Amino acid sequence: MWNDKNYHTLDWELKNIFGEKTIKLSIDGGFTCPNRDGTKGSKGCIFCSERGSGDFNSDCSKSIREQIVEQKQIMSKKWNSSTCIAYFQNYTNTYDNVENLRKKYLEALRCENIKGLAIATRPDCIDEETAELLSELNEKTFLWVELGLQTTDERSSNFIRRGYSLDTFNSCVQLLRKHGIRTVIHIILGLPTETRDQMLSTISYVSEQKPWGVKLHMLHVLKNTDLAEYFNKTQFHLLSLDEYVELVCDSLEILDKNIVIHRITGDGKKSNLIEPRWTLNKLKVLSDIDRELKNRGSYQGKYAPL
Ligand code: SF4
Prior knowledge:
Blueprint: H1 10-18, E1 22-27, H2 64-76, E2 83-88, H3 98-109, E3 114-121, H4 128-140, E4 142-150, H5 154-159, H6 166-178, E5 182-189, H7 196-209, E6 213-218, E7 221-222, H8 226-234, H9 241-254, E8 260-263, E9 273-275, H10 282-296
Parallel strand pairs: 1-2, 2-3, 3-4, 4-5, 5-6, 6-8
Antiparallel strand pairs: 7-9
Helix pairs in contact: 7-9, 9-10
């Protein structure tokens, strides 16, 4: 259904839309996060790295244009394509006043070959005014907004110190839907506070919301995080590669087939990653998932409710 894959990949979706490989350029817009600056919390989410979950990005002391030029040069060694999406990744990329946000987004959009914007943020940082700005951009370009839900389980959301409720998430999803904005939801698999059934319950919930896309992450224990300290103390169980592959395949089976899968592996920087080290071999993770789906004779949405 999706070329050689049994799930609806972002690569497939964007090739269909733009007619060629689309490259995502990760940039740091110089934002902070209310879960770090004391507004919602001062320690951040328990797993969050020093760079605000964007460890591969350029240097935010450079302008957005400079970062885009630099990222294009790096990516051109790997891909030959003139279709790029500027991905505002680090920290909370709607956490500023609307004028500053507009300035930063437009600076990215004015760069050569930028055909769209991806904006990662928190649901408690999009109010009506921000949604209107996003809506305005949505008419000009190909836009999606990423929300870090991670889990629907309340105990787990307290454990990770997410700092907002499921109601807040739901209201934000409704607001973005009202403005016709594509939404991508991040989920973490392997939290130590959750059983497999609880993880799949988050997946079912997200599937029912019918977002445009989903990102599945394996929980990473990164250096200099509170999760690393907790891991050192408790040595909690981290999913093995086989357990993760099985869980991802179960998740894909219950995710609606129209949902675009943006990621099914983690993306930790080698030098920052404590565990699980098997995630560094991304090609193996991806090929094991492909093989497991084929062995099962299965595909995304096989068990999704109609
Ligand atoms: S909301 Fe994002 S940037 Fe803020 S602490 Fe959590 S993971 Fe880090």
